Amino acid sequence: MKILLVGTKGIVEDARLKSFLIQKSFGEKKNSKLILSLEECAYLAEKKKAAVIKKGRKLSFKEIIATAKVKNFLDRYLVFKDLRQKGYVVKTGLKFGFDFRVYPKGKKIGEAHTEFVVAVKPQHATFTPAEFARKVRMAQTLNTKLLIAIVDSEGDINYYLTKREKL
């Protein structure tokens, strides 16, 4: 069972693997293909659920991580993996200015609204007050909750749930 890596996206054409991944809420359907995020590719490779292939060669987990063009990708991956292992459906949140959007446990996209949007930050990174306010307001506009995921130097994650209070 193979995932073809093109740039930073995984493409699944195999019907059996595609069916399995859709059932587990991975990827997004486009035409007859299933497109996976790089986090999803890395997760499936690490769990040995599928081989990730680039230019005819199977990539190791470390090689998949190295293909990322996003700053702090490993931190993002650790948060993705942690949330998936806790039973959440995790999708990219880039079009809303977040790292991820997270659906409730046991629900698939279309069955429930996004429960959280997630901003991932390394331990010593900061938010400017304006950046933080924008994220809180955007989460409110999306009718969801903002989760800040702080990843420390050992790969441990602390989550902070935020909400906007009106006085």
Describe it for me?
The protein is an alpha+beta fold. It is built from five helices and eleven strands, in the order ββαββαββααβββαββ. A six-stranded mixed beta sheet has the order 3-4-2-1-5-6. Strands 7-8-9-10-11 form a five-stranded mixed beta sheet. Strand 5 and strand 6 form a beta hairpin. Helix 2 (38-46) packs across helix 4. The longest helix has 13 residues, at 73-85. The relative contact order is 0.11. The model has no long low-confidence stretch (mean pLDDT 91).
Secondary structure tally, helices: 5
* Helical fraction: 25-40%
Using DSSP, what is the number of strands? 11
Order of helices and strands: EEHEEHEEHHEEEHEE
Strand fraction equals 25-35%
Shape: globular
Strands side by side in the biggest sheet: 3-4-2-1-5-6
Distance between the termini: 55 Å
Low-confidence stretches: none
**In the CATH hierarchy, what is the class of the largest domain?**
Alpha Beta
| Helix/strand class | alpha+beta
CATH topology name of the largest domain: Trna Endonuclease, Chain: A, domain 1
Mean pLDDT: 91
Rg over CA atoms, rounded to whole Å, is 16 Å
> What is the number of independent domains?
2
Known CATH architecture of the largest domain: 3-Layer(aba) Sandwich
Supply database-style keywords:
single chain; 167 residues; alpha+beta; MutS, DNA mismatch repair protein, domain I; six-stranded mixed beta sheet; five-stranded mixed beta sheet
Brief digest:
The protein has 167 residues and is α+β, with helices and mostly antiparallel strands. The chain is 30% helix and 30% strand. The protein has two domains: 65 residues, MutS, DNA mismatch repair protein, domain I, CATH 3.40.1170; 90 residues, Trna Endonuclease, Chain: A, domain 1 (3-Layer(aba) Sandwich), CATH 3.40.1350.
